[in-house]
Amino acid sequence: MPTAKPMLPVKIIRELLNYDPDAGTFTWKERGMKYFETDVSRRIWNTRFAGKPALCTLAHNGYMYGAIFGENWSTHRIAWLFHTGKVPREVDHINGDRKDNRIVNLREVDRTANCRNMRIRRNTSGAVGISWHRKGQAWVARLGSKHIGLYKNFEEAVAARKAAELANDYHPNHGRMADIAIGG
Fold first, then answer.
1. CATH top-level class for 10-115?
2. C-alpha–C-alpha distance, residues 157 and 7, integer Å
3. Dihedral pair phi/psi, residue 164, rounded to 5°
4. Closest CA to 75 of 56, 49, 94, 103
5. In whole angstroms, what is the distance from residue 138 CA to residue 156 CA?
């Protein structure tokens, strides 16, 4: 597994950006001479960018990002670093909206916990971990690779799957319908 690039120091992030934790948005701060070779380039940059939205480009996968010193950074990771002062392992969007970078919607988690708060992917049953077993003429409930059981009734299969999720520390939002259009 490739190692993550090192984050910018929080001091630099806070020097360059303003963060509105209630809106989840960033704006560029005015920069001093230490970031420029000439006063003209400083004035041009500040006229063009200071006070304007930052880290607000929408990626194809639905996440927001932007460039700082020519390198792209995920907005949610910068928001976590800016607000807490700590480099996050992984940041989860609690409500599943990848564009919602309000601090109340972000939490630091490990990979497993992040995967346990995913919206439903396309499937034929409309419920996570539930599929129709044609040969057995019953609904199959699974949690990952673990077989939970066969059920004649769809609602029983869904209830069994939800019970298994709760018993295995899945986030209550796991399996919610995708009401957020990715990339749109």
1. alpha beta
2. 44
3. -65, -40
4. 56
5. 11
* Separation of alpha carbons 140 and 148, rounded Å: 8
Residue 16 · residue 29 · CB < 8 Å: yes
Contact criterion met (CB below 8 Å) for 144 and 23: no
Burial, 93: exposed, middle or buried (Cβ in 10 Å; 0-12, 13-18, 19+)? buried
Residue spans per domain, the chain: 10-115, 120-175
Specify the pTM.
Answer: 0.67
Question: What are the C-alpha distances in Å from 164 to residues 109, 132, 158, 167?
Answer: 21, 18, 10, 5
The two tokens of residue 147 are 């077989």
The rounded distance, in Å, linking the Cα atoms of 121 and 146 is 18
The CA-based angle 102-108-114, given to 5 degrees, is: 100
Decide if pLDDT at 122 tops 80: no
User: pLDDT for 145-157, tens place per residue?
Assistant: 788 888 898 888 8
**Dihedral angle of Cα 52, 54, 60, 63, to the nearest 10 degrees:** -130
Write the pLDDT tens digit of every residue in 3-21. Answer: 568 899 999 999 999 999 9
Residues in the chain, how many?
184
Number of Cα atoms under 13 Å in the Cβ half of residue 93: 19
Q: Are 109 and 92 in contact (CB under 8 A)?
A: yes
Task: Tell me the average pLDDT across 41-52.
Answer: 97
